[in-house]
Amino acid sequence: MKLSIIILNYKSAGLTRQCVKGIYAAKSALDFEVIVVDNASGDGLQPWLTEHYPHVKQISLPNNKGYAAGNNAGIRQAGGEYILILNPDITVLPGKLEALLKFMDDHPQCGLAGPRLVNPDGSLQYSTYKFPSFWLPLFRRTFLGNIPALNPWLKDYQMMAWDHKEARAVDWLLGACLIVRRQAVEEVGLMDEQFFLYVEDTDWCRRFWASKWEVWYVASVELVHFHERLSAQKPLLSAVFSKITWIHISSWFKYFQKWK
User: Fold this and answer.
1) Per-residue confidence at 228, pLDDT binned at 50, 70, 90?
2) 240 within domain boundaries
3) How high is the pLDDT of residue 206?
4) Which Pfam families did the record assign (predicted)?
5) Which of 108, 103, 37 has the alpha carbon at shortest distance from 70?
6) How far lies 161's CA from each of 56, 75, 113, 125, 205, in Å?
7) Which residues pair with 149 in a beta bridge?
């Protein structure tokens, strides 16, 4: 089998349904499978999949184990030469999966790659990053990121000076859509499950590089991402008291402790 597509659902039945529909509507000639992992959502997705897409492999977890553990459950059941980690809020368009796999086949040293992500209006979504310094996540994910003097620092971290029109190796990629080579995963290992939510993508990419596998941004493959930045959507000081913000900051502390 060429490709395993893993979609992790947590109370996003509507988005997951549309994502699955889009994959099959693209009518890819690839030999692929779709694996939907449910993090104990209880949102009615599973009976719908059984009725409309009985060939989709379903994995039901007993409780919400988070992003890394949920995707790992799918990876363990995947049979593809390549594995695509796909968020439910991604829309797959015809020909894009084939193009992404061709890039991987043409670049044997690439262990992990991600496409160009765009907003529904077609505007660029920044999804490439440099490895962070210690204080950066705190400033970026709270109201402190609005301080004008920090703008150049934050833009450099997100590689905003680059037009994102050509493929290039990058430090790390947003985990919304990642394709990984099975051979590389066998060497690097699965996502680190100490990260419940956030930073598992940063850590995974760093481990790929540490194992001499390259991480690439594939500008020629464009997918639509209905992205919502949960940890920064609250205004001013209210973000400091947001649970999702503190989950994110906690993950960053674990990351920096791990990588010293």
Assistant:
1) low
2) no
3) 98
4) Glycos_transf_2
5) 37
6) 41, 35, 20, 13, 21
7) none
Q: What is the DSSP letter of 193?
A: T
194 belongs to a structural domain: yes
Mode of pairing for the β-strands spanning 3-9 and 110-118: unpaired
CATH number at residue 46: 3.90.550.10
Give the whole-number percent of the chain exceeding pLDDT 70: 90
Q: What is the mean pLDDT of residues 91-113?
A: 97
Alpha carbons 209 and 213: distance in angstroms, whole number? 5
pTM of the model: 0.90
**The two structure tokens encoding residue 173:** 């990629």
**pLDDT band at residue 35 under the 50/70/90 scheme:** very high
Tokens of 152: 């150049």
Tell me the pLDDT tens digit for each residue of 52-71.
Answer: 999 999 999 999 999 999 99
List pLDDT tens digits, range 177-210: 999 999 999 999 999 999 998 899 999 999 999 9
Q: Please report, in angstroms and rounded to a whole number, the separation of the first and last CA atoms in the chain.
A: 39
* Structural domain for 51, as ranges: 3-124+162-226
CB atoms within 10 A of CB 183: 13
- Domains in the chain, number: 1
Strands (E), 128-201: 128-129, 168-169, 172-173, 177-181
Instruction: Kindly state whether residue 130 falls inside one of the protein's structural domains.
Output: no
- 241 is a domain residue: no
User: C-alpha angle 83/85/90, rounded to 5°?
Assistant: 130
Say yes or no to pLDDT of 114 above 90. yes
With 70 as the cut, is the pLDDT of residue 110 above it? yes
Count of all residues that appear for the chain in the document: 260
